[in-house]
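Q: Joint fold for the lines below.
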Amino acid sequence: MDMQVLLSKIKNGEARSTAMLAEEMNTTPEDVTRTLEYLERIGVLRKTELGKFECGGSCSSCSGCSGSSGKEKGPCKGCIPEQGFEHMGVLWEVQNG
Amino acid sequence: MTDGKKTIALLGQPNSGKSTLFNGLTGMKQHVGNWPGKTVEQKQGGFTHNGEEYVVMDLPGTYSLSANSDEEIVTRDFISSGKADVVCILADSSQLERSLFMLSDYAGINVPCFLILNLADVAADQGKTINADKIRSKLGIPVVLMSATDVKKYDNFFAALNEALSKKTTLDISSLEAKYSKLDGFEELKAEIPENLIPGCSSTWMAVKTIEGDKVVRAKIENKLTGDSLVRYNSHAARFDKGALLTGECKFSWIDELLSDSVNKVTQTVKTSKLDKALTNKTWGKTVVVLIVIGGLLLSFIPAIPIMLLGGIFTALAVPVREALTAANASPIVTGIICDVILQSLANIVKMLGFAFGINLVFGMFEESGLMARISYVFDNTMSKMGLQGKSIMPFLVSFGCTIGGASSSRVIDNWNQKVLTIALAWAVPCGAAWAIIPMLAANFFGGYAVLVIIAILLVMLLHIWITAKIFGRKLVKKEDRYGIIMELPPYHKPKWGAMLRFVLGRTKDMFFRVVKVIIPVCLLFWILSYSGGNIEGSLLYKIGKTIEPVTKVFGMNWQLFMAFLASSIGKEGAVGVLTALYSQSGTIYGAVNGTNAAVANSTQLLLSNISGPQALAFMFAITFNVPCVVALAATYQETHSAKWTAIITGYYTLGALIISFIVYHIGLLIM
Ligand SMILES: Nc1nc2c(ncn2[C@@H]2O[C@H](COP(=O)(O)OP(=O)(O)O)[C@@H](O)[C@H]2O)c(=O)[nH]1
Ligand SMILES: [Mg+2]
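A: Joint structure:
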């Protein structure tokens, strides 16, 4: 796959799933996935795993939280479900320009 | 090569099964330490096979052989140190197109090697048939398809090991080299690098690493080259920009060719589900999402209704309690505090919790099932157009529970401008308190039409975010700072009911205590402020209220509603306390003026008879889009470190709430 083309597709700002991207690039989702992984490794893309989000106790000021209150690490129980947003998928981003 | 023992190095990406194979080979005979000078674990072990003794090194699992981490450097140095007689490269058979990357990165290293296609059982389960012999004929090294977990079947492994050792089999990379040589300037660069300048490494391998911008390899080469050849090396190397994209393409396409006729996959057409098709549809996606959200809101009323009715018990209870207290000649203050402040507040609180519970449950289910990811996916596109990173989704989602948490969680955003923009937008997301108060008020005023009110609020939220992004985004985020996004949608899941109920119940419980702490004191305070011996008209609050009422009426709020609106900037729950107090006081006069027993009037009825539909609607929008609460304001300051921007956002939202209130009031007058 031409990685430059892939990057330019991502850059245009339109959100896509990997499956859709595979279709557009005329390849398999596996190919897209490994390429994304590679691009992240070499620092071209940035990966955000929404499921792994932790506020790291940053909610200490949050009176609305049942509160790990900054003491324990991990998602603040009042704001986020116990396992974080486990099923929110993964985002890959590339800076335009 | 220690004491005539042969040394095997296990190389592979994480989870390719190195440790499993290592344990399978060495059993108990292993030693764990650290690599000299590094905090990287070194695992060494030994075994005997057919009377021969072997040493095995479990190299750290790395993605590739570039110099990005200590693990990778340790791995690379060990291989080129010559201490390994043979390198056993492992790949995961269930995802060869990805895990053979290590092999392609190894290509060009001259240390003898062989390839293990591990996790054969998993690949078989996927319906893949892998022809190891075909791969072998292309690579020129022994290739074994096996399962490291199946310790009794290591025969093929030992055969491959022996062959690799005795024949010193090295990888045939001619087809990969052919790809590299098509890269503009590759051959010229390669020509400047002598073979084995770094021990064990071919000039091809070193040229590839140079192109990829590998600083360690470049430094080593620059150290050894002199004069003209150094100048030429550097000038050829400088021709490659983003070289890693080019070499990456070569490696992946080499892997694909390797696998093209040696792996047969039972083509399981990955069917996009009907729902996903609908959601990702360019024209209809957003509509489908909006319909799903509305459906979710309707659903959330189902668990809320019984709890709501439960709240009604407290209201009903106020009547006999008041009668009893009056009969017992209790002071009107005590009666008022018990019936108007405590019981009435409890009634409202329980109703609020009903909705908080319902909404949290339904949207928790959306998240668990993977639906929420799809919902946010549809809006990703919009997000990046607004100049936000994907990470901003998090603060938004958290803000539905608590704006304070939302503001704090914007910490994950590294760009300050985008962080400020994210917080500014997250304020427009109605928080948990709003999601409890608004349905409660809406149900009191409009009964079943409450659903429409909530839908209208959601739509206004989207509009608000969009307008706010336009206003703030222009100042904060430059066009070139915008990001493109791809999202990997998670598969659908069955929600784990137990864990979710626990989370939702916990959250509802938290809310109960928080709300009690705010509503009852606020209610009490305003009740006292407006108490003046049975006639509210004598109270100071009333006088102030009446004085400002001509102005507040413009925004569709009478003075009581406006007081409640002001209280909502401190905390939204406060608004309910204020209303309860002020209307129960009016109730006293109401009762007195009408000459009826004060007991007939409860504040819900009074609320209904004293506030018109358009006023109620305006008020609900006003408190929803008002400043979320004082603590959110503090959190915003804490995250932005900017008093200026905190003040701007606060002013913007106060003004915005009043404008929205004005508009809603006038629309309300037209339609009601
Ligand atoms: N089914 C199956 N699982 C395996 C096989 N080899 C390793 N695993 C599992 O894959 C996971 C990763 O293996 P591990 O040896 O830790 O990989 P490493 O990261 O390369 O050291 C472990 O859970 C192993 O039990 C195999 O041949 N078949
Ligand atoms: Mg391991």
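Q: Anything notable?
A: Chain B touches chain A through 80 residues (CB under 8 Å). Residues 588-601 of chain B have pLDDT under 50 and may be disordered.
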